[in-house]
């Protein structure tokens, strides 16, 4: 899911999954996010990937 503007996120939802992050992170325009278990993976515009831990759960 692409990010459209600078956002401070403490929880990220994607599809039927969500991750409550251990600490808030800034997401910048042009980055792409992916929820992967207990992690949020953020791919920057330059192709680098950062992982942020949290607690993943299903949205019902």
Note the gap between the termini.
20 Å
Class by alpha and beta content: mainly beta
Order of the strands making up the biggest sheet: 1-2-5-4-3
Secondary-structure element series: EEEEE
Largest sheet: 5 strands, antiparallel
Q: Tell me the overall shape.
A: globular
The number of distinct structural domains comes to: 1
Residue fraction in strands: over 45%
Commentary on this structure:
The protein has 60 residues and is mainly beta. It has one domain. 0% of the residues lie in helices and 65% in strands. It is built from no helices and five strands. It has strands at residues 7-14, 17-27, 32-36, 39-43, 49-58. A five-stranded antiparallel β-sheet has the order 1-2-5-4-3, with no helix packed on it. It is globular and about 30 Å long. It starts with 6 loop residues before the first strand and ends with a strand.
What's the short story on this structure?
This protein is an all-beta fold. About 0% of the residues lie in helices and about 65% in strands.
Descriptive terms for the model:
5-stranded antiparallel sheet; 5 strands; 60 residues
Layout of secondary structure:
Blueprint lengths: L6 E8 L2 E11 L4 E5 L2 E5 L5 E10 L2
Antiparallel strand pairs: 1-2, 2-5, 3-4, 4-5
